[in-house]
Amino acid sequence: MTSTPYARKASSSLPAPATQTQRAVAFSEYGDPSVLRLMDFPEPHARAGQVRVRMRAAGVQPFDCAFRRGDLRGFMPATFPQVLGNDFAGIVDEVGDGVSGVQIGDEVLGYCTLAAHAELIVVDAGAVVPRPRTMPWEVAGGLSASGQTALNALRDLGVSAGETLLVHAAAGGVGTVAVQLAREWGATVIGTASPGNHSWLGSLGITPVTYGPGLVDRVRALAPQ
Ligand SMILES: NC(=O)c1ccc[n+]([C@@H]2O[C@H](COP(=O)([O-])OP(=O)(O)OC[C@H]3O[C@@H](n4cnc5c(N)ncnc54)[C@H](OP(=O)(O)O)[C@@H]3O)[C@@H](O)[C@H]2O)c1
C-alpha cells in the first residue's frame, strides 16, 4: 500500500477535523460554458462501502454540455450549484469501513453521476477499477463512460467475427472504443468521420468514410454484401 501525504482513513479514531472545503467546477444557472465557476464545497468523506478519490483527470461528455445548457431540465433538472462529470481517474485517499480490494494509494478509474469535475469524489468501491499502468491519466479519466457505452452497444447488437459493422462518429469518445472493440472481436469496421480523422482510423484497421450527403452510397460501395 502506498500512502499519499493527504491520505486519511475514514475510520480514523482521530478527532474529526473542522469542516474543510474542496473546489469543484459548477454552475448556478443554465447556459453556455461561461456559466461555469470554480466553487467551494464541503469535503466529502467515504462511508461504509465507499472510497474517496482525489481527482487527476475527468472526462467531459456531450451529456455534460447538454445538461449545462438545460436541454434535459424537463426530466432531469439540475440542483444548483450543480457539478458535472461522469467519469474520472485519480488516487484513492480514503476508504470506508467494509471495503476490500481497494486501498489508499490505489490508482483507479471509474464512473459516477454528475460529480467528477471536482478535486474529490466519493463513490461505491465497486465503481472503480485499477488504472492500467501504461494508460495516461487523461485517457483514463475519459474512458469509463464512453467505454461502457461502447461495450454495451456492441453487446446489445451481438457483434461477432466476420460481420461488417458501421460505426457513426467513429473518431469520437464512444466511437473510438467501439471500433477498436469490434475489430478485436473480429468484425470488419467502417467508421464515419471527418477527413482529418481518416488516417488515424485507418491506423486502427478501420475503413473510414466521410459523413454527409451521399453517405449511403459510399457505404454500399465499401460493403456491397
Ligand atoms: N460519451 C458517452 O459516455 C456517451 C454515453 C451515452 C451516449 N452518448 C452519445 O453518443 C454520441 C457520441 O458521444 P461522444 O462522447 O462519442 O461524442 P464526441 O466525443 O464529442 O464525438 C462526437 C463525434 O461526432 C462526430 N460527428 C459530428 N457530426 C457528425 C455526423 N453528421 N455524422 C457522423 N458523425 C458526426 C464527430 O466526428 P469528426 O470529429 O470525425 O467530425 C465527433 O468525433 C452523442 O450523441 C452522445 O450524447 C455518449
Written overview of the protein:
Strand 9, helix 4 and strand 10 form a beta-alpha-beta unit. It is built from 6 helices and 11 strands. The strands form 3 sheets. Strands 7-3-5-6-8 form a 5-stranded antiparallel β-sheet. Strands 2-1-4 form a 3-stranded antiparallel β-sheet, with no helix packed on it. By secondary structure, it is α+β, with helices and mostly antiparallel strands. Residues 1-13 have low confidence and may be disordered. It binds NADP nicotinamide-adenine-dinucleotide phosphate.
- State the major sheet: 5 strands, antiparallel
- The H/E string reads EEEHEEEEEHHEHEHEH
Question: Using DSSP, what is the number of strands?
Answer: 11
CA radius of gyration is 21 Å
In DSSP terms (H or I, runs of 4 or more residues), the helix count works out at: 6
